[in-house]
Write a structure and sequence with these properties.
By secondary structure, this protein is mostly helical. It has helices at 5-15, 18-42, 63-87, 89-95, 107-131, 138-153, 161-192, 200-227, 229-234, 240-244, 246-272, 275-297, 302-332, and strands at residues 44-47, 54-56, 193-194. The protein has one domain. Strands 2-1-3 form a 3-stranded antiparallel β-sheet. Strand 1 (44-47) and strand 2 form a beta hairpin.
């Protein structure tokens, strides 16, 4: 059966999870322009050639190079999604009843897309690494692309390892931004200014978002494994719900959710203490996480877990969008 070009294009966009790629790009842009830029602007330094004038720090990585960084990250992510579906044909047929790879897109074409996306992503990553003077950082793009391949081929079938790898990779998205922006800022201002305070504060702020991304992704991955338990058991996978059962998974999801909420309020009480953040955390993060807990604990059907998984995606998006609130507060000078 032949498929039209429009059908193949639609399925390719579904295969690479276009909405997820847009979230990756959004995350990177928000970390840079909503968090890192106001932080740099709030730090005043004295330039060596003009000791009487205080100057706000600014980016040293150009917007075009940053765009290449975003595109490269999205390409490697897309390659990861393609190879995941390549190895998941049988399980997806059991769990969802439909597949893309092996249907409108052949296995051969899927592997070609995977290789091309990876190659372009690695080349872009090496280019940006060279632009900031640390070409060796390009090795991380090679390692990430390899890790995504072996995750789909092997690790996701193993007890908890696959869940942790995915959570770490998601947490690396905001950290990539701060690494590639902080490195040239440090090199320039440590030499061109006196009393340079360093760039640790950039890592603390972005690291907070990365930790939230890690915890919420880990929660969602476990819920997804609970959804796919039947297919995973049928295909011989040793995932957490297959090995330990759904009850243990529910306990772990609850514990991770409680830890996430507790950390949110700890960070607020320790470092922020503003009303806007408190309301945001309570209404858009804590309450929905409690709803996820209730849904998972009372889930009697697969559709209940599907709703919990989708709610986790909204929580993760809300966590990213908090950067807009944080950026406004930093720019106002109330917190740093």
């Amino acid at each position: 059966m032949k498929h039209s070009r429009g059908e193949r294009l639609k399925d390719l966009l579904d295969l690479v999870r276009l909405p997820n790629l847009l979230v990756v790009a959004l995350t990177m842009m928000l970390m840079r322009y909503a968090i890192i830029r106001p932080l740099l602007g709030a730090i005043l330094v004295t330039m060596a050639g003009d000791p009487a004038t205080l100057v706000a720090m600014d980016f040293r990585l150009g917007w075009f190079d940053f765009l290449i960084l975003v595109i490269s990250t999205c390409l490697i992510t897309a390659a990861g999604y393609v190879i995941n579906d390549y190895f998941d044909i049988r399980a997806d047929l059991i769990n969802r009843g439909t597949i893309i790879v092996g249907n409108t897109i052949t296995r051969r074409m899927a592997m070609m897309y995977h290789n091309v996306f990876n190659l372009l992503g690695v080349i872009g990553g090496i280019y940006v690494s060279a632009r900031i003077g640390y070409v060796w950082l390009g090795i991380f793009f090679i390692l990430i692309s390899g890790l995504l391949y072996f995750y789909s081929a092997t690790y996701k079938r193993q007890f908890l390892i696959g869940n942790i790898i995915v959570a770490l990779l998601v947490a690396m998205v905001p950290m990539l931004v701060v690494v590639y922006d902080a490195a040239p800022v440090y090199v320039y201002y440590s030499q061109a200014s006196s009393g340079f305070p360093g760039v640790a504060i950039l890592f603390w702020w972005v690291g907070g978002f990365a930790l939230f991304a890690f915890l919420t992704t880990l929660i969602r991955e476990i819920i997804k494994d609970m959804e796919d338990c039947d297919g995973d058991r049928e295909t011989g996978r040793k995932t957490l719900p297959v090995i330990s059962g759904l009850t243990v998974c529910r306990v772990i999801v609850v514990l991770l959710s409680v830890v996430t909420v507790a950390l949110l309020y700890y960070v607020w009480s320790r470092h922020l203490r503003d009303t806007i953040t408190l309301v945001y955390i309570s209404l858009l993060l804590a309450v929905p996480l409690v709803a996820v807990i209730v849904r998972v604990l009372t889930s009697g059907e697969k559709k209940h877990l599907t709703l919990a998984s989708r709610l986790m995606k909204l929580i993760m998006l809300a966590g990213i969008l908090y950067s807009l609130v944080a950026g406004a507060i930093i720019s106002s000078g109330k917190i740093l």
